[in-house]
Write a structure and sequence with these properties.
The complex is a heterodimer of chains A (403) and B (179). Chain A contains 14 helices and eleven strands. The longest helix of chain A has 16 residues. By secondary structure, chain B is α+β, with helices and mostly antiparallel strands. Chain B has two domains: 32 residues, no CATH class; 124 residues, OB fold (Dihydrolipoamide Acetyltransferase, E2P). Helices cover 16% and strands 30% of the residues of chain B. Chain B is built from three helices and seven strands. Chain B has a five-stranded mixed beta barrel. In chain B, strands 1-2 form a two-stranded antiparallel sheet. Chain B starts with a helix and ends with a strand. The chains are: A alpha/beta (403), B alpha+beta (179). The interface between A and B is large, with 35 and 40 residues.
Chain lengths: 403, 179
């Protein structure tokens, strides 16, 4: 039986900044936010002045000031890339309780442009005590840098525990690229769009440059520019719009740790907990899902998460991709936009998950190109899972198409 | 990490030419030694932690070659990193015990892309160590070949050692030992 918040709110629009990817003309994070919000307002017909709640990773007060609005609900949850799925969860609760009817969830992050112009980067990741924390004190000496340096440890443990190989995970990168080649907005859509774009093979994934063994660069997501926004609204508001609603049937969130030092089991995340909460709210289970959108910061992230979501047995997450089920034309499409691996990843990937989930279930995903099978799937249900930090925080949503 | 002649000469050259360039993470202790003309024993270039208020017993221990670990006097569990409260039973009745300095590799990775002073050390092996007393530490692993990750085994035995990083800081590192 569904929970109290089942279909308490709907996503009624999803838009992106005018240009995303590796921008030739650098953009600030704020610009990416505002472009996406303007496009979202145009798409849905909801005036910016009608926004009642604003949800973003630390940006909310600046966004509201820039837009000249005074909301009555403000949320700045910033726990990494899954924050946006949590924003949906929180917006549902605020809507259900009657505080607001129209929530804006916004993302702007110039992961690529920031190298040239600075300008905002990713906002606040919610690092708490930061350098004054004892966890930092006891780990900062040991040469870990970017996310890849941490995540590689999880892949080694998975290989040790389950006998998986780097080749198993390489299929995830290959399949994601196949999807990206059906999506003209994907950064790796073609060689013309990006020198490293276009088709890749499992062998190329295996043989590409080592970043943190066993992760080669093609096991890693990109760091590009992205801005995106969605509206989450009450059923009452959804009924009067020109855009189709996509219903939020379930939502859940959890966390395992902040610092990877505290990760108890390197082959499991709190997605098992957040997914159970989302499935419970929806009154559904993994067998009811017809597609999935999974934060693929690295191939290993996608594989482990598929296991946590109950889409595959423990140790077998990669088989969804390796056996072709997740690929274009497969029976269980995953990451139909090309994922963080090949579509876009600006540092926090939660917003592209929401946008693709809306597009797929509202029937507005772009059609296939070059005579390939369409990117638009026939799925009517979708499980979305964001992961933040170093496999630290998770949030899961179950979306269903309108009747 | 002992000082090599080449890196010494580069440092002196850069000082004498008036163009002192140092990455942010290079510790000033090294630089001060050069100025004082003392015998150069130390070349610890990678980042050094700042001691926290409640972690002094740990750092005091490293000075003496001891691995001090926090333990809860109520549930007897050792935890790492040091807390203000026991993460298992939430008692604040904590004490420091001397650890065995022994452990095993829980998992590891080989860092090829590194930043700051660590960039010059790449490739190197990072590892999470399961302590004999319980819980886990991060380290840069020694006694292993970063170009042969297939020879590094999860579960292999490791022992702790300490590097003098500055006047008052010794940093623990773990070394894989032959069975």
């Amino acid at each position: 039986m569904p929970g109290q918040l089942y279909k308490a709110a709907a996503i009624v629009g999803a838009a992106e900044a005018n240009e995303i990817g590796f921008l030739q003309e650098p953009a600030t994070a704020l610009q990416l936010h505002i472009e996406a919000i303007k496009n979202l307002s145009d798409q849905t017909g909801i005036p910016i002045s009608k926004i009642e709640g604003v949800f973003s990773t630390g940006w909310s007060s600046e966004l509201c000031e820039h837009l000249g609005i005074q909301p009555k609900y403000i949320d700045t949850t910033a726990v990494g890339g899954c924050s946006f799925e949590m924003h949906v969860h929180h917006a549902m609760a605020a809507i259900h309780s009657g505080i607001i009817d129209i929530a804006l969830i916004s993302h702007g992050e110039n992961g690529f442009s920031a190298r040239k112009i600075g300008g905002g980067g990713s906002g606040n990741y919610g690092r708490g005590a930061g350098i004054a924390s004892p966890a930092h004190e006891m780990t900062m000496a040991y040469g870990l840098g970017g996310a890849s340096s941490n995540y590689a440890h999880a892949m080694v443990r998975h290989m040790h525990r389950y006998g998986t190989t780097t080749e198993d995970f390489a299929h995830i990168a290959k399949v994601s690229r196949d999807w990206a080649m059906l999506n003209p907005r994907a950064a790796m859509y073609s060689k013309e769009k990006h020198p490293f774009g276009g088709p890749i093979t499992v062998e190329q994934v295996e043989e590409s440059r080592l970043i943190a063994w066993p992760l080669t660069i093609l096991h890693c997501c990109m760091v590009a520019d992205h801005g995106g926004a969605v509206f989450v609204v009450s059923p009452k508001v959804a009924a009067g719009l020109k855009t189709k609603p996509v219903w939020i049937a379930g939502a859940g969130e959890s966390m395992g740790h902040a610092n990877m030092l505290e990760m108890d089991d390197f082959t499991a995340t709190s997605a098992s907990v957040s997914a159970q909460a989302a499935y419970n709210m929806a009154g559904m289970g993994p067998d009811d899902m017809e597609m999935a959108l999974i934060y693929d910061s690295f191939t290993i992230t996608a594989a482990i998460t598929a296991e946590m979501l109950g889409l595959a047995a423990l140790g077998e997450g990669h088989t969804l991709w390796k056996d072709g089920h997740a690929a274009p034309g497969g029976k269980f499409p995953i990451n139909t936009n090309g994922g963080g691996l090949s579509f876009n990843h600006s540092g926090m990937y939660g917003m592209p998950l929401l946008i693709e989930g809306y597009r797929q279930l509202s029937g507005t995903a772009e059609d296939g190109v070059n005579g390939d099978p369409g990117k638009q799937t026939s799925a009517r249900t979708c499980v979305i899972n964001g992961t933040g930090g170093t496999l630290s925080t998770t949030s899961t949503l179950v979306l269903i198409a309108d009747d | 990490m002992t000082l090599s002649i080449s890196s010494l000469s580069i440092s002196i050259l850069s000082i004498s030419s008036g163009a002192i360039w140092l990455p942010q993470s290079v510790n000033m202790f090294w630089l001060r030694l050069i100025y004082c003309g003392e015998e150069l024993k130390l070349a610890y270039n990678t980042p050094i932690p700042t001691q926290g208020k409640h972690t002094k017993p740990f750092w005091q221990g490293t000075q003496e070659g001891k691995l001090m670990l926090p333990r809860c006097q109520d549930c007897n569990r050792v935890h790492w990193y040091p807390r203000f409260i026991c993460p298992s039973c939430h008692s604040t009745n904590l004490e420091w015990i001397q650890g065995s300095g022994e452990g095993t590799i829980h998992t590891f990775a080989v860092q090829h892309l590194a930043f700051g002073a660590w960039a010059e050390e790449a490739p190197y092996v990072t590892a999470y160590i399961d302590l004999k007393e319980g819980d886990r530490m991060l380290t840069v692993l020694r006694g292993v070949d970063p170009n042969k990750p297939e020879d590094i085994k999860v579960g292999a035995r490791v022992v702790v050692e300490f590097d003098q990083a500055s006047e008052d800081m010794h940093i623990p590192y773990w070394r894989m030992v032959e069975e």
